[in-house]
């Protein structure tokens, strides 16, 4: 039923101005619209709604992720914009925070200003 419908992604934010700056300036997503309730971004053809909430309860798992062609370059670019990559206990991550899955995919995680976990993945 939904195979021909476009996906809309949602992420919660307690401060829309701060989140707008992060998603627009740090991550480079194009702002489509801002209302009192949400900032809407174009995430390479997928609508991302950063939705205002009173308080964000960071879930402790990845809520949004991007497939990238060059993980090292993507990490470098984000680090130059102030992003800090996350380390997780129990995962063997390299000096940049990259974890290599058993099948060879490589993943790195970071957080938005509200602590929502975001990721970059380079598939092998």
> Biggest sheet, in brief?
5 strands, mixed
Number of strands: 9
End-to-end separation: 31 Å
Number of contiguous helices: 2
Inertia-based shape: globular
Strand and helix order:
EHEEEEHEEEE
Question: How would you sum up this structure in a few lines?
Answer:
With 124 residues, this protein is α+β, with helices and mostly antiparallel strands. Helices cover 17% and strands 37% of the residues.
Overview of the molecule:
By secondary structure, the protein is α+β, with helices and mostly antiparallel strands. The protein contains two helices and nine strands. Strands 5, 6, 7, 8 and 9 form a five-stranded mixed beta sheet that branches. A hairpin with a 5-residue loop joins strand 7 (99-100) and strand 8. The longest helix is centred in the first third of the chain and has 11 residues, at 16-26. The protein is globular and about 40 Å long. The mean pLDDT is 97.
């Amino acid at each position: 039923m939904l195979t021909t419908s476009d996906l809309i992604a949602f992420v919660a934010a307690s401060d829309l101005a701060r989140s707008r700056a992060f998603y627009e300036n740090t991550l480079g997503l194009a702002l489509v619209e801002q209302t009192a309730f949400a900032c809407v971004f174009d995430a390479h053809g997928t609508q991302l709604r950063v939705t205002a909430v009173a308080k964000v309860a960071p879930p402790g798992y990845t809520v949004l992720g991007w497939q990238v062609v060059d993980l090292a370059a993507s990490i470098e670019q984000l680090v130059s914009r102030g992003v800090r990559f996350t380390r997780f206990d129990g995962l063997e991550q390299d000096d940049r925070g990259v974890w290599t899955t058993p099948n060879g995919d490589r993943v790195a995680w970071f957080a938005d200003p509200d602590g929502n976990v975001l990721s970059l993945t380079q598939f092998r």
